[in-house]
Structures are given as C-alpha cells and as structure tokens.
Amino acid sequence: MTGVKTGFKFVPDYSDGSIGSSLIIDSSFTNVGTVVVIQPPSSEAGSGSTGLVLENIAMSGVTTAVADTTGRSLLAASTRLDEWVLGPIYSSSAAAGARSSSPSGKIGNYRRDSALLDAQGAYYERPKPQYEDRGVGDFLHVRDFGATGDCVTDDTAAFQLAVDSSQGSILFVDAGSYILTGTVTVPAGVKMVGETWSQLVARGPAYSDESKPTPMLRVGRPGQIGNIEMQDLIFTTKGPTAGAVLVEWNMAADAKGSAALWDCHVRVGGATGTDLTPTECPALTSGIAPGCNAASLMMHIKPGASGYFENMWLWVADHIIDDPDLEDANNNMVQNSVYVARGLLVESTEPTWLYGTSSEHAVMCQYNFHNAASVFAAMIQTESPYYQPTPNPPAPFASFVGLFPGDPDYSCAASDEFSGCDESWAVVMRGCEDIVIAGAGLYSWFSIYSQDCIDGQLCQKALVLLKGNHASVRWEHLVTIGPKYMAVMDGKGIAAKDNLNVDAHPFWSQISLLDVTSDVEQNNDVLWLDPSIWDMEQPEFSCEPPCRVKIPLYTGATTTVNYPLMTVSQDAWTSTITVRPMTLPKLGFEVMTIGGSNVKRNISGLNRRAFEDFWPAPATTAAWPVVVYNGPDGKESTASPKAPYPTQPPSIEPGSPPPPWIPTRS
Q: Is residue 660 exposed (0-12), middle (13-18) or buried (19+ Cβ within 10 Å)?
C-alpha cells in the first residue's frame, strides 16, 4: 500500500462496536500515515475489542503502525515488523490452557517452515493460470473423446481417454454433468479447465459399499511425482453413494506449487438431479433419512502427496441450492438431511497450501490433519451438521469408524465433555508439526435444526481437537460461534466464554494467537551434521533432547538402478521408452526428531526416535522420476512407470543387506 493517510480503518459505520479481527501478513506500506486504526482496545471479554495480528510487515515513510480512534499510538512504525499481536493469546511457553492478553511483540520462538515460503520469505502464492500464451490448437475438448455430459450416459471410459490423451495440452471440460461409474485417474502433466463449473458425478454400485471407499477422481497414483493443474470443476454425486471418495490426491509436486487446484468444489446433494434433495432427504429431527448416505469422504490428501489448493469449498447440502421457482425472486432454500462421513483428510508431510477453503456438514469432522506436516492453511471455514445431535456422530456411519487413518474415537462417556460424541469436530489435529492456520471461522449454528442454542454457546461441546502435536503448530485468529469450548488441547478445554468478543448475538469468541502445546520446543532449530561424520570409525554426534537433526548425505556406496521400460501410446501410435540406468552415488536422510516427552517412532514420515543409539534409515523415494517425451504430433508429454520404486535398505548399519534393486517392467 502506497501514499495513503490511513491503510486500514477497522471501525464500523455505526457508532457502537468494532471490527472483530484482522490478520495482515507479508505486506508492505510506503508513505502511509497510519497503517491500522482501531477502536480503543480492551482485554475484557465481550467488549468487542478488535483482534489484530501483523506479521512480516515492511514499512517505509510510515508515521504510526497502529493507533486507536483517540489518536493514541499502540505501535510505533519500524522498518521491519516480524510480529505483533493484539487480543487473547495462548502461548506454548505458558501452561496449557493459560490465557494472556496483549498487545505484545513476537510470541515464543516460532519461525516459519521454509518449505512453505517464496524466495522473499513470504508464504508462497501462485496465481490461477489463464493460459493466455497458449494457442487454440493447445486446447482439447472432453467431448471430442466421446464424453456427453448429459447426466445420463456413462462417461467414465470417454473421460479417462480424454484425460490420458491431454498430457501436454489443456483439457477443456465442456459445460455439463459427466457421469462416472468408476474411478478416473488423472496422470501427471494434465491441465484441466471446466466451463462454468462443469460437474463430475459419481453414480452407481461402485460407490455403494460403505465398507469399501472408492475414489471418483484419483489425482496421480500413490508415490507419483509431477505437475497438474485443475480449475473450475464441481465434484458431486447422484443418489446413494455411501462409499464414494470424491477426490483422492496422491500427486507430489515436482516443483513448489506445481500440483495445484483452483476454484474446484465438492457439492454433495442439495441440487437438481442429485436425488439428494428435500424430496428424497427431508430435514429430519428424529431418525435417519433412508438412501441419503452420500459419501465416505469428500477429499483425501494422502501421505507423500502435496498440493496448492485455492478457493475450494467442500459442502454437504443442508438445503436445496437450486431455486424451484425461477419466476419468484425469493428462494426459500428448503433444508434437507444428507449424510457424508468425513470432510477433508490431510496426511501429507510435504509442502501444502490451503487458501480460502471450507468444509461443511460432514458427520465426523470437517478438517482432519492426521500426522501431517508443512501445511499453510489460510482462511478455513466450517459448519457442523444442522441435524446433529440427532443422530449423534458417528451415525449413520457407526459401523465404519476406523476405515480411514485418524478417524475420531467414539468411546463416549456421558460425563466427558471432550468426547466429540454430540456433534462433528470442526478440526481434528493430531501428531502434526509445522502447520499454520491463518484465520479460522468455525461455526455451530444449529442443534437439531434449532438456533436457540447460539446465544448460550450450547450448540455443541467443543469444535477443535488438538492432541499429541509436535513443534510449530500455530493458529492465528480462531473464531467460533456456538460451542461451549472453542478447543480441547491435550485434554484441557479452552472455554468460549473466556474469549467472548461480543456480548450480543451471535456471541462469537475469538483468539488472536494460539501456539499448540507440543512435545518439543517450538521450532527447535535443525542441527546440521558435518559430512565428516562418515569418516569416523563409529559415526556419532551429541545433542540435548529433544533435537531435530539433519544427517548428511552418505557417499560410502554407489548403486545402479535399472529404469523400467515404458510403453506409451496415442491413437494408433505406440512407442517404447528406454531410459539409461540411474547411478545413485549418495543416500539421503530425512530430518529426524530425537527424544522428547511423547516420542513415537517414525510417525507417518515425521521420523521420530527415542534418545538412544541408532543407525539412520535412508529417506524413501516416492516414485520414479518423470520422463518427458515427444508424441506423434511432436508435442511434449510426460510419463512415469507404474511399477513401485525399489525399496531402500532398512538401515546403513554394518552387515545390513544390500538394497533389492530388482529391474521391473510396466
């Protein structure tokens, strides 16, 4: 922002009240009088005081950084501002559940995960590509491959053909609803653009078995590394598809943000043609609507995957979204009861960005970060199902709890306010590290379709479950409506009434900064070992636990790996790709966490060990390197073998077996 008197004036037009909260990050202000103006702050609950977080701010020619409406300076200008917080704070340096108030400068020792940043140290962002530099001949229509999009014809085979044939081009998904009766797999190198939110529709018996969840769209195969771009699509269902997983994301980006999705949404029910409208699935205040179990999971970002996701809404219908009367400007949006077991499950430990995402009305939880790491989630939003607690979760999926990693525990003791057995969790976060939630609006508006619970914060017991997390998990601006407890952190509740922002409807609560308690110090520095360690007869090092250690590359062995032969085809053209054997002169190792009060060995890639003697295990290689080749038209395409990459040796200790480098074909 340049050349203005006031940057942001967080003051409402009406005389009484304040703007609730604001987070300003990675920004610069030049020749600005006052960067932020707010009402005079107060630490009293319910006073309406504005919560404010400024992070990574550059200032030049600025008179005042933060002032109130009386003209009092709250923060002087400076050339560089690392962090400044105003509002309720829960710091990891304090006892779990201990609240403090601010204003305050830098909180704790938290530092950003460098894997999530750009070259300037800001959180990485990537604009939605417009392909304005591509010619008409670079675009392919999905209907040119036989797909109809008429919401009747089975388009599975035609859609798969279109996807497989579009590598190196841009696949335009013409407006329509494409019935998919089986899984469509999107390989690396695909660029897919919908026309005004073209719909991919899961239908049929392949998705009917709740005990066998089946993806409708599989983005990449497990372990695949590459790039992919998808935008302007809707993923949805038709009829009872209780076993459907709308999107399974396996792709690991071959460069920062290269596996990406923009403006794509999951919508389950609540629309014409879904057979999950108020007619088939009315809003029930008792019992369960038959035939309305619509999906097992809306989206799964799997271990080893990574991605950039922007403007993504995962929505289980609480009402009909289509207007039944196009002549009348009024749309009553009649409510309905549709059941989907889970929202978004994130298991990735590779750099992943979630910008402007939402997950609403799933039965068990909306966001589940399970043993995840290296995630930046900005502006997340949730709503609990309107029909709960009738039925209570996990109904109607009680027989299928545990099908996915990280499913909540439903050992429901009547006296346990933190069990999650009354309503869906908004966010579950367990076994995680290096995760930032930069703005969260988590709402519980109803209890059995009644809103009488809101003002008393009685709509449900708790919204966020935080348990057994590791270093550097931070929330900025957590806002809740409806629960008694905003969060449960390692068995201790954070009461909504203690953080009440406004003493009037809807009585919302706000925390400016929450550093999640962990079993190691926040952002414990990585100890980089010197390569000379491998010159020792008995390699050894020492550190004060808990410590994070980066072991240097091991150059004591050279291995040759035979790259599998690959056959690629396009129409009548077929070719076999031969790649010379790969010589691997080094073995790499992942960063390890040694020791700590809550050590668990090798949790889903986090590589945690007790403080004891050990020989390191080599880092796993997720997939074969992608090969670029020219097709019959001379255009570049990419491919990689489907065969699994050879398993690394379990250890490099003396006497360990050599790696089983067995050539394979695919």
A: exposed
